[in-house]
Amino acid sequence: MQHSKTLNIIAGLGNHFAKHSRHSVGMRICDSLAKKHNLSWSYERKYKAFTTSLSVQDHQFILFKSKWPMNLNGRSLEKIVSDLSVDINKVTVLHDELDRNLGKCRWKLKGSANGHNGVKSVIQSLKTDKFRRLRIGIGRPINKSDVVDYVLSDFTAAEEQEFFEVATRCIEMLRMDVFPDEVVEVGQNEARTVVVEGYADKDDTIKDS
């Protein structure tokens, strides 16, 4: 990896052994971002994670997927953040959220894990809760007692069809709010405003042009 540029990490949380499950939607968004830019993943043994990187002007974006189970994802992330001396303000975590319907996304800059074991692991490992998160809605099962089975199961066929739009929306939010400002094309100011409002825990409502 190159280190002459400002380093940023975009980490998709999930279970690598169940990478198509609802719980691993953060990893899937990373996969979609990598595919969009024709990037190939490599396994980094010392981090127990898969990584690839994207250069944008004077920034290097490392896409990151831990091979540890979800509740231990933070171990891998802490190691690469520490090893490469990445500023915590340059760390973005993507993860699923039960309390949002599929397709609804929002930003969060700091705060508790809200019961999410992957985020809890990241907070414990980084010893801070002040990192940016993109929370990706997956919805809740009708029967609350089925939550574990629900998050570990794959999307339905209908949800898979919708996932493409979800991934596109998340990538657009990352492009506008994580990548350098110069990357945002002229005419995107209205959409940027919507994303900024997401910090107030409002739904993302970016519409296709």
How does this model look, in words?
Strands 2-3-4-1-5-7-6 form a seven-stranded mixed sheet. The protein has a single domain, classed as Peptidyl-tRNA hydrolase (Rossmann fold, 3-Layer(aba) Sandwich), CATH 3.40.50. 33% of the residues lie in helices and 21% in strands. Strand 3 and strand 4 form a beta hairpin. The radius of gyration is 16 Å and the shape is globular. It has six helices and seven strands. 37% of the residues are buried. The model is unreliable at 182-209 (pLDDT under 50). The longest helix has 21 residues, at 157-177. The protein is α/β, with parallel strands linked by helices and 209 residues long. Helix 1 packs across helix 5 and helix 2 runs parallel beside helix 3. It comes from Clytia hemisphaerica. This is peptidyl-tRNA hydrolase. It holds the Pfam family Pept_tRNA_hydro. Belongs to the PTH family. GO terms for molecular function: peptidyl-tRNA hydrolase activity; tRNA binding.
